[in-house]
Amino acid sequence: MKISHFSFMDNRVGFDVKPIRFGRVNLLVGASGSGKSFIIRSLAFLRSVADGELGNGSKWDVEFETTDNLRYRWEGAFDAVEPEKDPDIDEAEFEPPEVPIAHERLYLNDALIIERERERLSVNRVKERRLDNPLSILHLLKDHDVIAPAYNALARITRGNEAETRRGPAMSASMNVENLVRRFHSVENIVRSKEDVMVKLFLIYRQGDSAFWKIRDAMRKAFPRIVDLRVVLRRLDREIPFHAPAVEIRERGVERWIDESAVGAGVYSTLVHIALNRLSPPQSVILHEDLEKGLGAGCLEPIAELITTNPNNHQYVVSSHNPFLVNLLGRDRWRVTTREGGVVRCLPAEELATEENPLRNYLHLLRLEERRLGAEQTETTEG
After folding, report:
1. What gap in Å lies between CA 139 and CA 119, rounded to an integer?
2. Which of 146, 153, 222, 255 is most buried when burial is the number of CB atoms within 10 A of its CB?
3. Residue of 332, 281, 282 whose CA lies nearest to 308
4. Mean pLDDT, the chain cut into blocks of 10 residues (383 residues total)
5. For residue 140, what pLDDT is reported?
6. Domain ranges of the chain
7. 291 close to 303: Cβ distance less than 8 angstroms
8. 277: three-class secondary structure by DSSP
9. Under a CB-based contact definition with an 8 Å cutoff, are residues 325 and 292 in contact?
10. DSSP assignment, residue 228?
11. pLDDT of residue 371
């Protein structure tokens, strides 16, 4: 999958993301509060809608290509409903209500194939019927021959931050090992599954597949002190026979295997990045906020190399404030994010930057960003 164009509006928050053109690798750069994280979370929202979740006040328009080179355009909107807040409920615990989809349209190669206006559904502009279910038509009709490629493409959107933060036994659902091993007979099935990336890592380790050794070798290249890597299972509860995977590493000069809980944050984050790249389905869309988070200086170059070489032809939409990482990825991959009021724009760097020196170029963009935001707005949105 590759997302080519995207726009998004959240009427409840008041943010309006103007149309963005995406390439294969997209690094969102700009001042804090400019909308980088909002763009990434909005892209992740598309998958949640296709998976059957509802929203409130959101409007989207996205164009993408599938792995079979089918070109879809999907647009839709939820009504914005202001809820009545219960004074007895704490503000932090309050969740806004989810509302049905107001409208949806799905195009295939510029031809409208299905349209929904609230409960009215029409196919190829002719057949009409009533649809009482409030969920997205991509979710409801995901097994239809024409809809399935679009649904399966959106299912390839992956958030790297989620995999990175689920460290330890809570990082994946509890599981029965024998059932899992029985379900997956090949690496291809493992890669295409919706299992957590660390569950996938365990399964390919259990099979002794070369995909695992490639991940191990990539870790050894990034961290020469690492000798070996393995994935073991930890029992979650004495009473219930369920387990969760945990990583252990072997280092030069250290006699015992090092437990996951003692593995450094940078090492673990690097492993997540490598595993996501290798074990996500080919041509996935990998999203990541603050790419440098948890990574030490020595980890940045391997991650940049992984993204730029991109052996599985994934699409990356990531953000970073780290000048070293930004320059490693290169100006041709920068998407400069600016925000004026609620209007968020994201432009290729070549449309804004003119300096030849990479570092000067980056500093020039930051100065430009601050001028666009305005000092007062920057102060209120940073953090």
Report:
1. 15
2. 153
3. 332
4. 96 93 94 92 96 92 96 94 63 62 94 91 74 88 94 93 54 56 83 87 90 94 94 73 83 94 89 92 94 83 90 93 88 90 89 59 58 41 39
5. 92
6. 1-25+34-156+334-383
7. yes
8. helix
9. yes
10. E
11. 40
- Tally helices (H) and strands (E) across the chain: 13, 17
Round to whole Å and give the CA distance between 63 and 74. Answer: 6
- pLDDT score, position 204: 93
Task: Output the pLDDT for position 174.
Answer: 42
Q: Any idea which residue has 């909308």 for tokens?
A: 35
Which of these, 215, 78, 50, lies nearest to 138 by C-alpha position?
50
Helix then strand then coil, in percent of the chain rounded to 5, is 35, 30, 35
Residues with Cβ within 8 Å of 208's Cβ and at least 6 positions away in sequence, in order, are: none
Rounded CA-CA distance 119/96 in Å is: 22
Which of 169, 170, 160, 164 has the alpha carbon at shortest distance from 267?
Answer: 164
Strands in 258-259's sheet, in edge-to-edge order, are: 226-235, 243-251, 258-259
